[in-house]
Amino acid sequence: MINLILFGPPGSGKGTQAAKLVDKYQLLHISTGDLFRYEIGNSTPLGLEAKSFMDRGMLVPDSVTIGMLRNKVEANPDVAGYIFDGFPRTIPQSEALNALMDEKDERISKLIMLEVPDEELVDRLSNRGKTSGRADDASEDVIRKRIAVYKAETSPVFDFYDEYGRSIKINGVGEIEEIFERLCAEIDSL
Ligand code: ADP
Description:
The chain is α/β, with parallel strands linked by helices and 190 residues long. It has helices at residues 14-25, 32-41, 45-54, 62-74, 91-103, 118-132, 140-154, 156-162, 176-188; strands at 2-7, 28-31, 81-85, 110-115, 167-171. The longest helix is centred in the middle third of the chain and has 15 residues, at 118-132. Helix 6 (118-132) packs across helix 7. Adenosine-5'-diphosphate is lined by residues 10-11, 32-33, 36, 53-54, 57-60, 65, 86-87, 89, 93, 136, 146.
């Protein structure tokens, strides 16, 4: 199996690239942000809890996020591999993911980080906010808060997998197709 973590700050293009990778490699794309938005759309208790954190640019508590992720993985055992997008975002989430992979006798093949400068992230997310209807893209304060949360809570996840020699960075600025080729080059070398 190929099990990838697509990593990087909010607005770095993870969702866009994941959709293209799924087509090419037939992997299952699991985006915790999309899963939360689905729950919110259905007004489930989980969705209502997640929304209160998401709208403020904060992380949803690990216990909620890890449980939801585990359900999704366990519901889809027969796949060629997974692309995790927006997960793990904390060290406890990384440990939970490793435990889940161990149970399946699998492991994370690679964490690939898309590097994009902060000001470009703010521009991209503000633009997306004009059409996405996403509450967390609608205010520059919330966008900047998400970037700050990424730096404080999520960036250590890069180092966590780097200790196993599995983390790499690629340039996330450029044409979508160009960035996709950079990603494919890394995956094909696995
Ligand atoms: P982006 O990467 O643009 O911020 P996402 O859709 O990945 O968008 O995430 C949106 C929000 O969903 C996050 O700001 C956070 O509140 C919540 N969220 C998504 N994934 C996680 C996670 N793994 N742990 C905690 N909260 C999460």
